[in-house]
Every structure is written in structure tokens, then in C-alpha cells.
Design brief:
The complex is a heterodimer of chains A (about 160) and B (about 300). Chain A has about 160 residues and is mainly α. Helices cover about 85% and strands about 0% of the residues of chain A. Chain A starts with a helix and ends with a helix. The model of chain A has no long low-confidence stretch (mean pLDDT about 90). The longest helix of chain B has about 30 residues. The chains are: A mainly alpha (about 160), B mainly alpha (about 300). Chains A and B meet through helix 3, helix 4 and helix 8 of A and helix 7, helix 8 and helix 14 of B.
């Protein structure tokens, strides 16, 4: 496993991301990852707020179009996230905060799909789902942010 | 233009321009003119935004002047603490001004009256001490005597420097604020653009305070980052651009609550071309802020 990760890190694309230059490569991918985060988590939490009672007059049907953008944000972050992973494969693979982040991103996406299927299509209130969504995003984002500190701590 | 020039230019805003804002607001109250009072609310909010570059450019000026003969570091520190005190009250005034524009409540008037006068007094004191850095003869007492006045800038620096967990927590909340601000601003602007349809703006309007709250969270956490190592930021070109974009992008948070057209936009109505341009511009500006924030460590610093 360790040698496979090392091989990934030595691959052309991983080297390019790490050492490719200033304006493209690592910083650009990091920016796109943040843009995807802002779009996906931002819109998802705005919907959560609506489900929790802020702006109750907003018809849910009018928010359905935002799912296109949220999936686009998710696709962008899956792609950029994979690139950021291969650039430092061994470091991330040995970091428990990384797995915590993946787990809670996955849970948040499951909750988002449930919100779409149950609340938008079947008219249940979805307060619990909205609260779960906000909690999952917060934990995912916190563990992502703490990855750098934890990798320093364990190394 | 150096940081010292910039600070000389911008430092008149929290005093002179803010004085004009207070005058507009008070004149509106006396003349019972709603238009003048509203102009006062707008001016409070814009002054609060412009106070951000005014404050951070102070550290840029200090970076240039610190080694010059005759500079008293303790007067500079006293000025910085006085400025931070005024800055905090300036932000509170701007926040309440925004709320008063968003959904007018009676309580906002007395609160703004007190806050704006207190802010003006604190800013005048900061300006006076700041003037004393180069012209010690204008200082009546010794501003460097500590203990008499709160020292919020020094307290902020101590908080983030002395406790290692404060920085990571601020980072987490800087992202939380980013999501609140960007998500809600995106939603509101997408409605103005017509991408989202079938919702009256009056309903969507309830979400807007969450965007402003996100801005407040990021201003607090961002200011703590800045206080920890101001040179790292003032000597970074990307930081200056980021602050500039925040001022313009922040001002677009006024558009939907000030424009009668948007406030009364019906469920299936289309917004005007002007509104759509503002919305598109606002989205681009916030993306620009994120871009510069992300690139800050990689570009701009030598």
C-alpha cells in the first residue's frame, strides 16, 4: 500500500501539481476546491436554513435548480480533491482527519440526496435532515482544516 | 503609492466621511426626512467597509516608518489600540445601519444615534493620537500611559499569538463564514439573474442577514489573522487587492435591500438589466475575494 501511494506521488501529474509553478498547479487547484466548497456547502446550508424556518415563504420548487450547481460544485471538488490527494498521497493516507473528512462529506451528500428526494419531492418538513446536513458540513470542514495540524502532529 | 501614502489618504474616511454620515443621519431625524436618514444608514455601512482598508493600511505605514528617526513606537501602539476601539464601534454602527435598511425597526434609531456618536468620539481620539505620531506637539496628554483606555488591538494579538488553538479555530470559522456569505449571496444574485425563478424577493430577503453574519464572522477571524502578523499581510500585494474587492463586493450587499425594484420583485418577475449586471458583478467579486484569499500565500509576497 505504502509503495503504491509513493508511486502515485511520483507520477507525472502529482509532481506537476506540487512543483508545476506558481499560478497554475497547486494554488489554482486549491482555489477551485474552495470555490466548489463555497458553492456546494453555501447553497446546501442556505437550503438548510430555509428548512429550519428562515424565509419560510420561499417555495422549495424555486430552489430546485440550485441542485445543478451543487452537483457541479461536488464534481469540481471530487476532481480537485483527487488531484490534491495524489500530490501528497502518503501524507494524506496516513492522516485520520482525512478519513473523517471523507466520511462526513459522504454523509453530507447522502443527507443532501435525502433532502432532495424526501423534502423537495414528498413534502416532508425535513428539519432533522437540515440540522444533520449543517452538522455534517461543519464536521467535514473542520476536519479538513485540521488535516494540516494533525499531519504535523503525527509526523 | 506606498502604504504610508495610502494610510494618509484613507485615514480621513473614518473621521471626515463618517462625520458626514452622522450629519446626514441627524439631519434626517431633525427634518423628519426618511430619505436623509436612509442616506445616513447607507453612509454608515459604506464607512464601515472603508474602515477596513483604512485600518490595515495603518500597519503598512508603520512598516515603512518604523525605522525612521523620531518615531515613537509607543505612540504608534497607542494609536493602533485607539483605532481598533473606534473600528469595532464603526463596524457595529455599519451593521445596525444595514439592518435598518434591510427591515426598518424603531430601535435602530436610538441605537444608531448612540453608536455613531461614540464611534465618532473614539475615531477622533484615534486620529488625534495618530496625528501625534508625526506632530507630538498636538498631543495634550501622554497617550502611551496604558491602563486608562482598553487596548483591543493588543488584546487581539495576544489572543491569537498566545493560544495555539485560536488560529485553527479561526480558520475553521473563516470557512464557515465564507460558506454563509457566498452561499446566500449566490442564491440572492441568482434570483436577480433569473437563474432561480418562482420566488418573490420579499421572501428571499429573509436569508440576506445570514450573508451579512458570514461577513461579520470573517471580518472578526480575518482581523485576528491580521493582528497576529500584520507585516505578512501588508507586504503582500494579493492582500491589498483582496481588501479592495471586499469593500466593493460588500457594497453590493446594499443593492437588493435599497433597490425598490428588487425589494418588490414578484414571484415570476424578471429583474432589470441593471440589477442583473449588479448580480453578475457581485458573484464575480466574491469569487475574486476567494481567489485572492487562496492565492495570498503563493503570490504577492517576496
Amino acid at each position: 500500500m505504502g509503495s503504491l501511494l509513493a508511486e502515485i506521488e511520483q507520477s507525472g501529474v502529482a509532481t506537476w501539481i506540487r512543483e508545476g509553478g506558481v499560478l497554475y498547479g497547486y494554488p489554482l487547484i486549491l482555489f477551485l476546491h474552495t470555490l466548489g466548497l463555497g458553492t456546494l456547502v453555501g447553497l446546501s446550508s442556505a437550503i438548510d436554513l430555509r428548512l429550519l424556518g428562515v424565509g419560510q415563504g420561499i417555495p422549495l420548487k424555486s430552489l430546485e435548480k440550485t441542485f445543478v450547481l451543487m452537483w457541479a460544485g461536488f464534481a469540481l471538488n471530487a476532481a480537485t480533491g483527487s488531484l490534491l490527494f495524489v500530490a501528497d498521497a502518503r501524507k494524506h493516507a496516513s492522516n485520520p482527519a482525512f478519513y473523517l473528512k471523507l466520511l462526513f462529506v459522504a454523509l453530507a451528500i447522502v443527507v443532501l440526496v435525502l433532502i432532495r428526494n424526501r423534502v423537495f419531492r414528498e413534502q416532508s418538513t425535513g428539519k432533522m435532515l437540515a440540522a444533520a446536513s449543517l452538522a455534517c458540513w461543519f464536521i467535514a470542514m473542520s476536519s479538513a482544516r485540521l488535516m494540516a495540524y494533525i499531519s504535523e502532529f503525527i509526523s | 503609492m506606498s502604504g504610508a501614502h495610502l494610510h494618509l489618504l484613507l485615514n480621513h474616511i473614518p473621521t471626515v466621511a463618517f462625520g458626514v454620515a452622522v450629519a446626514l443621519f441627524v439631519a434626517g431625524l431633525i427634518k423628519k426626512s426618511e430619505d436623509l436618514t436612509q442616506a445616513g444608514f447607507v453612509a454608515f455601512f459604506l464607512n464601515a467597509l472603508l474602515a477596513i482598508p483604512a485600518y490595515v493600511s495603518g500597519n503598512a505605514a508603520e512598516f515603512i516608518l518604523r525605522d525612521q528617526p523620531g518615531m515613537s513606537a509607543s505612540v504608534v501602539t497607542a494609536h493602533q489600540n485607539a483605532a481598533m476601539l473606534g473600528f469595532i464601534f464603526m463596524q457595529l454602527t455599519g451593521l445596525v445601519g444595514w439592518v435598518a435598511l434591510w427591515r426598518f425597526r424603531r430601535w435602530t434609531i436610538p441605537v444608531l444615534l448612540v453608536l455613531s456618536i461614540v464611534t465618532f468620539a473614539f475615531m477622533a481620539r484615534a486620529a488625534n493620537i495618530g496625528g501625534g505620531i508625526r506632530h507630538p506637539e498636538i498631543l495634550a496628554g501622554d497617550p502611551t500611559v496604558s491602563g486608562a483606555w482598553p487596548e483591543p488591538a493588543a488584546m487581539g494579538t495576544a489572543l491569537i499569538v498566545n493560544y495555539p488553538w485560536v488560529w485553527p479555530i479561526c480558520e475553521i470559522f473563516h470557512f464557515v463564514g465564507l460558506c454563509m456569505l457566498f452561499g446566500v449571496a449566490l442564491l440572492v444574485n441568482l434570483r436577480m439573474l433569473g437563474f432561480i425563478e418562482g420566488v418573490a424577493f420579499a421572501d428571499l430577503n429573509w436569508l440576506l442577514p445570514w450573508a451579512v453574519l458570514g461577513l461579520v464572522v470573517n471580518l472578526i477571524t480575518g482581523m485576528l489573522f491580521f493582528l497576529a502578523s500584520p507585516d505578512q499581510y501588508t507586504q503582500n500585494a494579493a492582500f491589498g487587492w483582496k481588501i479592495g474587492l471586499i469593500v466593493v463586493a460588500g457594497a453590493t450587499l446594499l443593492y437588493p435591500i435599497m433597490s425598490d425594484e428588487i425589494r418588490t420583485l414578484k414571484q415570476d418577475a424578471r429583474a432589470s438589466l441593471v440589477a442583473r449586471c449588479v448580480a453578475a458583478g457581485s458573484i464575480c467579486l466574491w469569487i475574486g475575494v476567494i481567489f485572492l484569499g487562496r492565492f495570498l500565500p503563493y503570490i504577492g509576497s517576496e
